[in-house]
Amino acid sequence: MQIPPKPTDAELEILRVIWQHGSSTVRQINDILNEKKTVGYTTTLKLLQIMTQKEIVRADKSDRSHVYTSLLKEEETQLHLMDQLLQAAFGGSAKKLVMQALGNGKTSQSELDEIKLLIKQLERGAE
Amino acid sequence: MQIPPKPTDAELEILRVIWQHGSSTVRQINDILNEKKTVGYTTTLKLLQIMTQKEIVRADKSDRSHVYTSLLKEEETQLHLMDQLLQAAFGGSAKKLVMQALGNGKTSQSELDEIKLLIKQLERGAE
DNA sequence: AAAAATATACGAAACTTTTCGTAATAAAAG
DNA sequence: CTTTTATTACGAAAAGTTTCGTATATTTTT
Questions:
Q1: How far, in Å, CA of A24 to CA of A60, rounded?
Q2: Other Cβ atoms closer than 10 A to B12
């Protein structure tokens, strides 16, 4: 599959656990998911099996407890999802999206500084 | 329903038509949708009926061709969807999302200027 | 070695979303 | 007035997503 398939909400939750904690077993993933909400063990297992079939994750079966690794890179997936929202809800206007994202005033000064730096670099690089 | 329900992809496409063209009939909405892809008339009708039930749109039935009006405001919906993506994919870091959105370098100078202005205002307003 | 705990496989139910066919009705054209 | 066209109502199929129960197998504990 050339273009990475858009993960569903439940799949994304699992991906985030793997991105944050590295390759993990079903038990590890399910435990972390259960810190936030109740999810049955076999539910998580089934999701991972489906994700394996979709080639979103890969299962290392050398041990009895299979170890799952993400086949999607975090930043690529974020970019993909962001771009899809950009088109679907903002008609492709990154400006609108950015201003909505910053508008609530919850972004710290140091983060704003990083964004300003990026903008400077973009302005420098633009011909 | 206190919090506006998150519209589905197909619902969002319809909302965008209404936001852009104002209150419209099924025929008008379906024609515009069909500029981009083939969609059956009754499919669009059914969606609008479901959206009416969900209180996403309101149907004015005084004429035979019902006229549908959005009950969701464009900016509120964008904010809602953006926030949901922010949490689900970026762990709440607006900085990461913004940098991904601007990173491709497709944002024009004048738009960057507007963003810079917003950041200045945020910095001024921050205590 | 028996019992208990842990793991995977897998079917299927419950739910949501999307799509469309058919029927009924109303309006317009002939 | 009759035929054609346009519209809504509605059921339901098709597809996708999420959840979990049960069966089976393996490992660990007693």
A1: 10
A2: 20
Chain mean pLDDT for chain B:
94
Q: How far, rounded to the nearest angstrom, does the alpha carbon of residue A85 sit from its chain's CA centroid?
A: 14
Range of the domain at A98: 93-127
Q: Are A78 and A37 part of one and the same domain? A: yes
A106 vs B91, B94, B107: nearest CB: B94
- For the residues of A41-99, what is the DSSP string, one character each? HHHHHHHHHHHHHTTSEEEE-SSSS-EEEESS-HHHHHHHHHHHHHHHHHTT-HHHHHH
For residues B10 and A11, what is the distance between their CA atoms, to the nearest angstrom?
21
B74 & B12 share domain = yes
Q: Quick one: pLDDT at residue A1?
A: 46
Cβ–Cβ contact B114 with A under 8 A: yes
CA angle B39, B3, B13 (to 5 degrees): 15
**Chain A residues close to B9, C-beta within 8 Å:** 88
CB-CB neighbors (< 8 A) of A124 in chain B: none
Say whether both B43 and B74 belong to one domain.
Answer: yes
Q: In angstroms, rounded to a whole number, what is the distance separating the alpha carbons of residues A64 and A100?
A: 47
Question: For residue A3, what pLDDT is reported?
Answer: 63
